[in-house]
Amino acid sequence: MSVLAHGVGSRTDLPIPIGFALYGAGAAILFSFAVLLLFWRRPRLGGSDSGRPVPAGLQRVVDGAPLRRGLQALVLVVAAFVVAVALFGPRETSRNLAPWAVYVTFWVGLVPLSLLLGPVARVANPLRLLHRWLRVLVPRAPGAGRLPALGLWPAAGSLLVFVWLELVYPGRAEPVTVAVFLLAHAVVHVALALWFGEDWFAHGDGFEAYSTLIARVSPWGRRDDGRLVLRSPLANAMATPAQPGLAALVVVLLGSTAFDGLSRTVFWQSGPGEANDTLSGTLGLLVMIAIVAVLYLLGTRLSGRLAGQDPAVQPGRYAATVIPIALGYTVAHYFSLLLLDGQTTWILASNPFGADGVDLFGTYDNRVDLTAVSSDTIALVQVGAIILGHVVGVTLAHERALLSARRARASDQLPLVIVMVCFTLGGLGLMFGF
């Protein structure tokens, strides 16, 4: 497996026939929808004020400056170290720690961390610390008033830049590319934070917004009064505040993982992507994002029209219901990457600069253990993650319909459910090169 390919790749060793997987997945979505219509007739998940408060002492620690500043300083040191390794370490990608640390350990590892601990990127974002140090240069933030209107659109753009780098740019695995990206990302976002204020990071930093999005299906939540609570991940997702650009952020995630799957198919490699150049990759990425966006807009707007509601507000209203689907796609694409290629980070960390005779942890001569997880397990996790994500998405969409109209007719929700079935079948088909 190469760091040049960040998805799990195309697998033909699915332990059940791909046809059964596709039909079974579609049937699971439709069956869950039917069950919801019959037995889920009123809102059940609770609002943004639901949840069990954590001990006050724990909240003081979590929200306290010592923990946050300490984590931010630690991550800043690690990031500076990764940049140094990228610039002065081995030139070969296979022996340089930086690409593996960024594309695998950080990018993929952010998902389980956010699921278990909440929005960790927001708490530990080192750029917030840099901004605090440099804030004396611009004591007042002239553009702070514009942030609410911008919503999460800047974060969607920031995330698009990274997934383009990760999936399209030919030199993405070169250590110097990693160093330039990390430095440019820091400079751009700190400069924008000086103009818009510290809240810019929540609105514009793609990594922080991505972690916060994934944390919406974690058990950690916040009530409207700021109290830290434990609650059902489903209730947490439903409590996601409506923001401009939330749907765009989710669509970028779905579309980019769809392109990741497409780029590993024979159709792409022997057809539109045969040149393996920046232009074809960029167009492919944008087209897949556009397809996801069009399907989502059609499904939500048509559902709203059938329910007698304003179609224009439906994409934003149902955006949170697509978060589990995006998470399912992400787990399916990156599960094996983290468990297998993730080993390389710890192997290379034993001698990050490639110096003769250095082996800090005694692992530098180790090889990736490809038997750490079986191909059957990988395939089953891929199928299960996509199906579970869509079943949860249908459940949240049904709950949202109940909250919006106090009744949920099958005809009103059917367009969005059909779109979710299309996402399921398309995701599985691309995952296994069908």
Report a brief summary of the structure.
With 434 residues, this protein is mainly alpha-helical. The chain has helices at 18-39, 56-63, 65-88, 97-117, 120-124, 126-134, 147-150, 153-167, 175-196, 200-204, 206-215, 233-238, 246-262, 266-269, 278-306, 314-317, 323-348, 375-405, 410-431; strands spanning 52-53, 220-222, 228-230.
Task: Outline the fold blueprint.
Blueprint: H1 18-39, E1 52-53, H2 56-63, H3 65-88, H4 97-117, H5 120-124, H6 126-134, H7 147-150, H8 153-167, H9 175-196, H10 200-204, H11 206-215, E2 220-222, E3 228-230, H12 233-238, H13 246-262, H14 266-269, H15 278-306, H16 314-317, H17 323-348, H18 375-405, H19 410-431
Antiparallel strand pairs: 1-3, 2-3
Helix pairs in contact: 1-18, 1-19, 3-4, 3-6, 3-9, 4-11, 4-17, 6-9, 8-11, 8-13, 13-15, 13-17, 15-19, 17-18, 18-19
Task: Explain what the structure shows.
- This protein has 434 residues and is mainly α.
- A three-stranded antiparallel beta sheet has the order 1-3-2, with no helix packed on it.
- A hairpin with a 5-residue loop joins strand 2 and strand 3 (228-230).
- The chain contains 19 helices and three strands.
Helix percentage:
55-70%
Count of extended strands: 3
Annotation field: number of helices? 19
> What is the CA-CA span between the terminal residues?
20 Å
Which strand order does the major sheet show?
1-3-2
Structural class: mainly alpha
Tell me the overall shape.
globular
